[in-house]
Amino acid sequence: MKNITITETIGKSNEKSPKVSSKIILKTPKGTRDYNAVEMYLAMNKISNIKRYHIARVYRRDNPAITRGRYREFYQCDFDIAGQYDPMVPDAECIHLTHQILTRLDLGHFTIKVNHRKVLDGVFASCGVSTEKFRTICSAVDKLDKMTWEEVKKEMVEEKGLDESMADKIGEYVKMNGREDLILRLQKDTALSKSKVAQEGLADLSLLFEYIKCLNCDSNVVFDMSLARGLDYYTGVIYEAILTENHSPDGTVGSVVGGGRYDNLVGMFDPKNKTVPCVGVSFGIERLFAIQERKQKANEGKIRSSYTQVMVASPCKGMLQDRLRLLSLLHSKKICAETSYKNNPKLLNQLQYAEENQIPLVILVGESEIKEGVIKIRVTETREEVTVKKEEMVDEIRKRLKQLSNT
């Protein structure tokens, strides 16, 4: 086991122990790299371009909350892009990746919140906050997903020494959320229109929304001014994904994905302070498992154990070759399908197999269907059946699968 501990460089940590860090302790098995270790790797090896992912154990200073999926030692999946590229293109890919993974995990509806550190800094400056208090006020704003505004305001005023009138002004901004409409509104805002740094951040966000629309992943993305992500090293766009469905009455498990742009972190480990722009995203694997377990309990322990989307079945004997042809067709269209290995399986056994393995759709083909050039599609859960032409089968299956994934 190889230990790399970052203490005084990031945050306020001053103990060189694998139990303490403001973000993540870099305790890695030999041959692997953790979140901040990759930045050290880039700096030490003079690498200025890389695109990579990994899954490994990471550590943080925190009070564990096991029921909420919050652990001190936990597995995390990281994806990072480093290099000089045009603005917001790698950032859009990170959001696209987040959207793809959460969609495929099928854990329920989710929201990807985005904000920009320059917008936050512009807000703080416009509200009269001194530069040295930006980060401490930012860390207070970051608690708005767990605390009410009144509680956060009290912390700003009583603990961080902020003037109450400044806190009230900040409150007006951090309660805002929207999409491109909010970006346009803030670009015309009387105070923020005078802030160069805020306008730069808003221009970035406007471009980001253009790109994620092209990637068809904008429907779940919200510009949320309360998103702050209290870590010091973020320099640009920040984002966080939360599930908006609870699978238990005791509440959510918090964010499941977080990330953003950190252009200065590599330079902190480079002897010549060479800057390598970076953007990345992290997936909390334990949290995702905790949500999956909740979902399983909510479904009374029933959870899909198979990736199969379609069961190819027949009520007639001697239809194996026809079933195999349909199976091949579905596979060629990238639809996960299977059929019984028996030549003459009983229909009841085929339907029970689909129910037991929670295969959402069954297609039924018999002699009459072959003659008429049609296929029956059966929804396993409701037992609803619809007959379609064979050439329309694939489109109908995809439509049904999409409908089922949204319910």
From TrEMBL:
This protein's record includes keyword Zinc: no
Reactions that this protein is recorded to catalyse: tRNA(His) + L-histidine + ATP = L-histidyl-tRNA(His) + AMP + diphosphate + H(+)
Keyword line: Aminoacyl-tRNA synthetase, ATP-binding, Ligase, Nucleotide-binding, Protein biosynthesis
GO biological process, one term: histidyl-tRNA aminoacylation
Entry keyword annotation includes Protein biosynthesis: yes
Name by which UniProt lists this protein: histidine--tRNA ligase
Organism: Armadillidium nasatum
Pfam families: HGTP_anticodon, tRNA-synt_His
Gene designation per UniProt: Hars
